[in-house]
Design a protein that fits this description.
Blueprint: H1 7-16, E1 23-27, E2 40-41, E3 51-52, E4 56-59, E5 67-74, E6 88-92, E7 104-107, E8 111-113, E9 119-121, E10 130-131, E11 142-144, H2 152-160, E12 165-169, E13 173-178, E14 183-184, E15 195-196, H3 198-209, E16 213-215, H4 224-237, E17 240-244, H5 255-261, E18 265-268, E19 273-274, E20 280-284, E21 287-292, H6 296-314, E22 324-327, E23 332-333, E24 340-347, E25 353-355, E26 372-376, E27 382-383, E28 388-393
Parallel strand pairs: 5-6, 13-16, 13-17, 14-15, 17-21, 19-24
Antiparallel strand pairs: 1-12, 2-11, 3-10, 4-6, 4-7, 5-9, 8-9, 18-20, 20-21, 22-28, 23-27, 24-25, 24-26, 26-28
Helix pairs in contact: 1-6, 3-6
Length: about 400
Amino acid sequence: MNSMIAFEEALHKVLSSAKLLTIESVPLQSALNRVLALDVFSDMDMPPFNKSAVDGYACRKEDLLETLSVIEVIKAGKSPSKSVQPGQCSKIMTGAMLPEGADLVMMVEDTVEDSTGFIRFNGLKSAVNICFKAEDLHEEDKVLDKGTLIKPSHIAVLASVGCAELLVYRQPVVAVLSTGDELVEPNQIPGLSQIRNTNAAQLIAQIENINAVSFYPGIVPDDEEVTRKAIEHALSKADVVLLTGGVSMGDFDFVPRILKEQQVEIIFSTIAVQPGKPTVFGYRNGKYVFGLPGNPVSSFVQFEMLVKPLLYALSGHEYHPLQLKLPLAKDYSRRSGERRAFIPITIQQTGEVTPVEYHGSAHIQAYAYADGVMSVPTGITQIKKGDLVDVRPL
């Protein structure tokens, strides 16, 4: 398992290992960014009755050019009490039920009222201006598919068909373990040879951004026994464990050995990508472990490329990140094409892509200004200005 594999193969191995989490019920108000565990069907016709699309006067089409008497006023939420007969109309508000006998609504701005209270159409022509019963949905029509990631645009649909409670997949719990004696928390001033722990804060934000649940027990020092206990605890608490640091070839990088002791099957340990080559992925009985490199850009990028798709897959959602083909604003070159590269970019108003100044996998500041990531395939060392490149927005 030590041979370097292509990114596409790594992603396939990660997703093919995913097993759906359990199902739970949540109220509609808590459903945002959850994933539907069952198809949702309409419990009624939508609209449930013929209703006016405008404020105006409901009448018969053949009476459009006649002078009409007003027989009642129909407010939204009020049922008509009278049917419209020849020579008659009902004043009606937007959304109100259409009275029997009427098959057209004159817009109020296309009418005039004479001194006796009669109504006359004074426009050139009139649309029907009616929302007809069931023109949007019929009872038992499917409105949302199982696996839908619920967005704000779905909430009104769910409310309209009476889904006050929804069956959704459980949110993945993700443990974040940052390893290394050189780390201190962000609220501390680093001593000599120390750095602030940016990875944990960054990963927790990425986890919570997709509505998964984060679990962070604190920095794990470079001590094999302490690391072993931390990993055991994380595996008992979480569905997915993210370790940063301790996964490469240093003297204190004993994490892979501990994972094997914990009966975590290592699926791969090296990917042909830049950044993120020494990324480890393992599996044990419905538990998933990623060993991410300690450099913050590497952990950020590999979360987006590998961890996020897994978390969505565990939640029942088939994740298809937006991929754009955009022209490069200037020539790009790199020294080696041995690995696929993910390069931070900005997207100009013209739609062109400009690589951000980027000094390597410790330069997390580059991503503060990035609109997305440009993928440079294996074997490619030069791209000319104007050539189309693959871009994933962030």
